[in-house]
Known about the structure:
Helix 10 (293-307) packs across helix 11 (311-318). The longest helix has 20 residues, at 69-88. The protein has helices at 2-8, 24-30, 50-63, 69-88, 92-100, 198-207, 226-238, 250-263, 275-278, 293-307, 311-318; strands at 16-17, 38-41, 104-107, 110-113, 124-130, 133-139, 148-149, 189-195, 215-221, 244-247, 267-270, 284-287. The protein folds into 2 domains: 2-149, no CATH class; 189-318, Rossmann fold, CATH 3.40.50. It is an alpha/beta fold. It is built from 11 helices and 12 strands. Residues 144-157 and 159-169 have low confidence and may be disordered.
Amino acid sequence: MILKQMRSLGMKQRVFGSYRTLGPTLLADAGPAAEGFEAVFPYDPTRKDPRWTEFQSRFAKRFGEQPEQFASLAYDAMNQLLDSICEAGLNRARIHDALAQIGSYNGVTGHMVYDPNLKNVSPMYLGDVHDGAITYRLERIEKQQTTPSTSAGIAAQQPAKPAEPYAYLPEVPVSFAGPAGPDSPVGPIRVVIFGRGATAAAHRASVAAAIPSGWELLPIDSGQNWGVAATELVQGLMEQHALAIVAMDRDAAHLSAQLALKSFVPVVAITDDRTLTSTNVPWVFRLPASTSPEAALKVLKLAELKSGANPDRLRSVLASGEHFGKQFFAVNGEPGKPQM
């Protein structure tokens, strides 16, 4: 109806929509007014690979119609859940861990790739209405050559590989990092060390005298049950009022970044994964994967001497471009070139 009203008023702007708008109903209801309409779509429903066409046939035989996008995506999601239940047994924590181990999955809708936060980062498609039909082409956020597909389908489709990184956004400083928070409670300054082998890393830091006087490390091992580890991390931030997080690896860094956005606590992430900083999360400061936890703690110690026990001021000092020994951070949280 909206498309018809727009065209009747002489409006010729390009119109974009979400994937729920694409399908036979759009063509039937909007008619010629749908010409040029575009919408993102999570897969190519016109492809002819056997996994997809067999699912279409089974679905149509049982329900008397072709599967729309919600039925197709739900089928893939449920199969991943059932596979995890069969692997883990009837234990919610183990089921959660089994789901977290799905790095990629070949479903009826195509090849899915998951990042450490269990987000499907496979490229999306763009559906376009032209001459009464919908065509789909592969689209990426970053500029890469796309693979066109017509309504007649394609003979075969290679599994989509995840882009590294999967998003390119302007890496400029943000003007608002979040509300100004209070100082940490009176008492020891607590810093979370999160990652595989966190307890051993905290012990090494203690032996190497890398822990300042008045500091307390909260080691949380991500190698344990992932649900338990996430719960301990939340408790460290919300109940024990940790000043900062040192994330020891890529997976730990991604979960820490999510919580940093909710708790407004800076994260020093030891990883070579630049996707952490390419999305302008102003609470994440990346160090190369070769950096030791002791070196990351030294950076935090030097920054805290200038900021005091306040997460917001600590973030501001880390983002200021000041040097902490040989290390400093660019405005986007990327590591600057160490001084020699």
